[in-house]
Design a protein that fits this description.
YfhL-like; YfhL family 4Fe-4S dicluster ferredoxin; PSI_iron-sulfur_center; two-stranded antiparallel sheet; iron; about 5% strand; about 80 residues; single chain
Length: about 80
């Protein structure tokens, strides 16, 4: 499943540069994750890097976008072939 950023985000700017897929961007009020680009770092790292660096732990899994590891890997391949 893709990750999401909750309203607890403090706009500290540490997650955006850590995303290898450029899925994180500044939204109107807080940072946002594009679920079409988020692979939870599958294909790049063992753990989602944004979750690792977030100081307020505001990046949970998005319950509305459930994806298997295989689906995330397929998305990674699609994104990296462009």
């Amino acid at each position: 499943m893709a990750l999401m950023i909750t309203d607890d985000c403090i706009n500290c700017d540490v997650c955006e540069p850590e995303c290898p897929n450029n899925a994180i961007s500044q939204g109107e009020e807080i940072y946002e994750i594009d679920p079409n680009k988020c692979t939870e770092c599958v294909g790049h790292y063992d753990e989602p890097q944004c979750q690792q660096v977030c100081p307020v732990d505001c990046i949970p899994h998005n319950p509305d976008i459930v994806e298997s590891h295989d689906q995330l890997m397929t998305k990674f391949i699609r994104l990296t072939q462009k």
